[in-house]
Amino acid sequence: MASDHFSSSTRILRQLYFLRNITITFIIVMMSVALVGLKINLPVIPLSIIVLIMAVTNLITRLLIDSGKAISERLIFIQLLLEILSFSLILYFSGGATNPFTFFYLIPLAISATVIPGLSTWVLTSLTVILYSLLLKFYIPLTYEVHDHQAMQHDGQFSQHVLGMWFGFMVSAMLVTWFITYLSRELKQREKDIADARQRELRDQQMVTLGTLAAGTAHELGTPLASLAIIAGEITDGFSKHSHPDLFENQAILRDQIQRCKKILSVLSDSTGESRADAGFLMSVQDFYEQTLQKWQEQRPDTHFRTQLDSLQTPLKLLYDKTISQALINLLNNAADATSEPLEIHTSIDDQTMLIEIKDSGSGLSEQQIAMAGEVSFSNKPDGMGIGLFLAITTIRRSGGSIEFKRRQSGGTSTLVRLALIQSANE
Fold this sequence. Notes:
alpha+beta; 10 strands; five-stranded mixed β-sheet; Heat Shock Protein 90; three-stranded antiparallel β-sheet
């Protein structure tokens, strides 16, 4: 969560950088208009020095942003403090509180009220009030090069002041609206990130619970399966294979199924972390696809499917984990159980992602089930618990991939699996 916070602070500092660029440009334009258009005598040298200091400050800000270092709230506070001080100096040399652009004081205050804690905001607000109050008395008044009659000069200055106030209010309102809107989106995104993190934590807790349950179940089922294996061997004692072929055939099937159950329990124990020597190494995309499909075919030899295989030749590798392969097999099994028609499996490479799309012609998932997928366990099977689908989705998400379910117009479900690929250090 700390990294998300610093990332948000960096984005806010980047917006302050852009905002200061706008401010510097605006000050230069207004100085030019005042000198050339309105014939106002301005202290150009002090104002130019202040603008130069603001530009240097913004350059340092840009270097901080590009450095990738963590941005703290104290740094944002200092940035806003410099903004208020520099603007106060500009007002001092350009009419003080009589300057129509005093509205600009509201911009850093609005930003601080949204971004940084309350105490820091009140410090900036108090400082702004004090500086604004001092500018009522201490400032360099504006003078004009052209001196007409005093009444005409007073009326002209008043009209310019009113026009300046209108323009300053308009610009301030636009900048405040733009920045507050941006900050509002940032806050909503942070709330969403926090909610997603809590959801991931909940899923991780469920995974730990299921892992503990799987380890205990594998241990408890070992003894009954051993007893069944002995009993299966004793079923045909005293019988002839030729005189009772059906009995011997059923005994062979029973023995094979017991061996399959033992193998499944062994995989289950491995998946809970008791034996992970074959996990966590790089594998080519082609080898991963072929091995996973072969394992699935060994489990479901009677399942018919059609494959559409694009070129899988890529220097990128897949960080192999047995649980990823098992997750894909679970998805293939779910699709095979949902339909009697042949499955369609389309595999391809897109940028740094391996795409595996599984299409079935079953009854399909409802929109509500698609929304719940990966969040809770559910199943369309009469005797199913939905744990396989939940574990498959969670496993692939934890590996950096994703799963997307869509209802097909022709009936059935399209399951799109995205697996992240990485560059091998040896390439």
